[in-house]
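Q: What changes when adenosine-5'-triphosphate is included in the input?
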Amino acid sequence: METLTTVPSDPPPSTEAGTPLVMALPKGRILAELRPLLAHAGITPAVDFQDEDSRRLRFETNHPGLDVVRVRPFDVATFVAHGAAQIGVCGADVLMEFDYDQIYAPLDLGIGRCRVSVAEPATRAGKDEIAAWSRVTVATKYPAIAQRHFAARGVQAEIVHLNGAMELAPSLGLSRLIVDLVQTGSTLKANGLVETDVIAHVTSRLIVNRTALKTRPEAIGAWITRFRAAMDDLR
Ligand SMILES: Nc1ncnc2c1ncn2[C@@H]1O[C@H](COP(=O)(O)OP(=O)(O)OP(=O)(O)O)[C@@H](O)[C@H]1O
Ligand SMILES: O=P(O)(O)OC[C@H]1O[C@H](OP(=O)(O)OP(=O)(O)O)[C@H](O)[C@@H]1O
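A: The predicted holo structure follows.
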């Protein structure tokens, strides 16, 4: 299966003036942290947006020119890169993984703070010099980030692609290492792993589609300004 990271240049109809802008927001933990920012930016989505059990995915807001859609965190970048949504909020981890050339990330929102790290079983930590190996198995949901990280050290990463519970992989013989998000470190600790290398520090970003920014600069620019002001308000 081919994954498009260079997206077609034709703007979809939703980037044309006159239709509401669509803002893609991630379900889950970022959305919880984002709520005060949305409120300070003056965005009030329809009532059932707050209900994560609601089966609706697209919601009107108090602004006739803005709708919000609630999608999986990894999919926010894909919706925005393809112009299906013109604005979004997304972790830098996801942006690094996909490296979409159609996404511009003008604002660091300072939420969703964590890091992408390499970890290994505490019992084996410090015993081997990974840079001396030619290949290593790595369980992760970030195959591109992991591959780039190890390739830069001359090591070929053989990726075991998981969508969660990476921490189980070393003890069950699925991989030697994992690459995953770490915040407090408690998940690693609870699973007998230690962080050995920080690949990148992560926060969430306001992202926009580059073509939409060219075709609707006032509307999108106004939302960037509002989010910046909302961050200043909350400081
Ligand atoms: N422990 C954490 N602390 C802070 N931020 C985190 C943490 N884990 C993830 N994040 C940030 O939140 C984003 C979404 O993570 P979350 O765990 O809510 O989604 P997910 O498990 O990838 O979603 P799903 O599998 O349901 O699609 C990540 O891309 C990252 O930027
Ligand atoms: O360092 P910590 O504070 O323990 O946080 C790290 C954990 O948070 C994320 O998982 P999440 O809780 O989102 O669950 P998931 O595996 O379903 O994505 C991440 O994948 C780690 O497992």
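Observations recorded in class: Residues 7-15 have pLDDT under 50 and may be disordered.
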